[in-house]
Amino acid sequence: MQFVFKRNELKYRLREDQRRLLEELLAAHMEPDAHGASTVRNVYYDTPTHLLARRSEEHPLYKEKLRLRSYVPARESSLVFLELKKKFDGVVYKRRATLPLAAAEATLVGERAPQGQIECEIATAASVYEGLRPAMYLAYEREAFFARGDHDFRVTLDQGIRCRWDDVSLAGPTDGELLISPGETLMELKSSRALPLWMVEFLVSQRIFKASFSKYGAAWRLQSSRRPLRQQVLSTGGREGLPLVSGPRAGEQVRAKLRRGIAPYVIQRG
Known about the structure:
- The chain has eight helices and ten strands.
- Helix content is 29%, strand content 37%.
- The protein has one domain (2-216): mRNA Triphosphatase Cet1, Chain A (Alpha-Beta Barrel).
């Protein structure tokens, strides 16, 4: 099964009290989607120098991500989503194919011939990046809704957004380090048209403003903050386009960038 999506995606960060108010509105205007309340599991692919993550953090006009996604614990034969997510001038374009986990993994690293147009597009995009491999595991608890009578407008509410860099597989556990505060919700509004009036009124009344938050970008910043300073400086230079920081104030420049990262909260594994 293969799909193509084109839509605008707007992100907002909600406090607990704002989420409670929103849930009353959602009950009046929307319905849970096919996945309803679920744990979303993702594996993001990247180069050894994290080129895709670094480009995302630069907020360019065009960027893309390659990932695998599942809503249930996966095995090699389990069906998962193979996705290419592109963003150009604020509009999101997503290519999605449904494949067994082992086949999806092999497609991204060039060890399997793609089948069908969407798989070919995803495989072609992946082939551009030398050394592409599983780089980051991201999971979160999501509730998803669509508007009654209009499936074009969707709302997703994500909590417990967490990441890890070991055991990067959809078959692994779902624990990791939190990227947002406990109790905070990341809301995404997805539509190819204008937002409904009731949602606009809610945002205005609660003084909720659009936020710039990339889950993968935030996870990469957290990972970067753990690497030795010299390694970070060297990994951002070279032919892939990010300037090499040098000179007597190099350390100060890099530390200033790292201070803009997100403080980790640890979920104990059990």
